[in-house]
Amino acid sequence: MFKKILIANRGEIALRVIRTCKEMGIATVAVYSTADQDSLHVKFADEAVCIGPPSSTLSYLNMPNIIAAAEITNADAIHPGYGFLSENARFSEMCRDHGIKFIGASPEMIEGMGDKSNAKATMIAAGVPCVPGSEGLLKDVKEGKKIAKNIGYPVMLKATAGGGGRGMRLIWKDEDFDEAWSSARTESKAAFGNDGMYLEKFVEEPRHIEIQIAGDQYGKVCHLSERDCSIQRRHQKLIEEAPSPFADEELRNKMGEAAIKAGEAINYEGVGTVEFLVDKYKNFYFMEMNVRIQVEHPVTEEIINFDLIKEQIKIAAGHPISGQNYLPQKHSIECRINAEDPFNDFRPSPGKIDVLHKPGGHGVRVDTHIYAGYTIPPHYDSMVAKLIVSAQTREECILKMERALSEFVVEGIKTTIPLHLKLMRDPDFKAGNFTTKFMETFDINKIN
Ligand code: MV4
Q1: Predicted confidence (pLDDT) at residue 432 exceeds the cutoff of 90
Q2: I need a surface site. Which of 15, 280, 325, 336 has the fewest CB within 10 A?
Q3: Domain range holding 36?
Q4: What is the number of the ligand 1 atom nearest to the C-alpha of 436?
């Protein structure tokens, strides 16, 4: 087992990893920017190294500085958390070259799954259901139009280097193809330095349901049930839950088996997530594979009573997985609390937290790095806490979340807590009646 792990991240996930390391008897090294000097991850780690100024590019994305921090502290592994360098092939390679274990995917895996068109081709070959569309990249606009006519409009034009909806265009008719093609390519080239495009039939009003998997160094892959992440706004998830209110036992088993096939096809090692689009008929299609731990991993931990970070570290150290699948024993919901004003177009609201009261009680978990007196710096992601509740049924879970949200007091900044309270009281949310379009029509000022 590793003796010392450097955590190349900040905020709640840095703290989350430090906690598991402590429980495993592993020493920890925090890295921090000058804006994060007073952060809890710095205080709770055994050692801390400043890696640069506030700007992420110069600190949390500064690969030479982070490698140097690992070398001077003698860390034998680096945990990247999510975001930042977690899916950076060059960083994974740098770790390998310096004899430091990267607790995440190999450079080859990151590159293979980071290219969406390539990932899709791999999944088709493995027999994982995918949305009908182009076979690989489109050669030119002419080929795109021809395939669109064949599969039928509406179609989705997607950037192979994309993700989070960037470089993606929904096209309803042939006349709109040229404009979508050139603007998507320009956007994609500017954002990723790659303008490769592929095409798919548009899946209308889908749900976003993803399967958590784990694979070990000996070729064994298992699934750990699904999460429903359909409640999102502009590709930012707001609420995640497990199990999905839309999934029955049959869908769960089918999607689980497809995700295992996906993991086996690429010899996946570590914890990962296979994302699917699910239509109203319960047809499901591979969308993307995430080769990192995700923000929403706690809802899976809660329903199967399992520490995913511990599993991730054990797999990286060469331990075998048990090989069995894990089915939901409970229901769990996570609300992402952001320092944003939900009444003012989600405008960021960094600043000093004057008063803080975190909710507690049975089945209530708060993953956060904030404390009373802490100042949220303006340089990073606006997520400041994850409120995770679990109960025997979805109905109890929603009531518990409503109770926990009503106890959560954060003064000094605006947060999305009032939005979540409204969502917990929404009849369609309560009925499990939602798709990825839910937030487009949700009105926070609506009176139920
Ligand atoms: C789609 C789709 C409908 N049909 N592909 C959005 C981000 C990227 N990962 C893929 N996305 C979508 N791909 C086809 N063929 C709809 C979306 C989509 C979406 C997917 C998951 C969660 C939220 C979403 C919001 C808008 C569009």
Answers
A1: yes
A2: 280
A3: 4-103
A4: 23
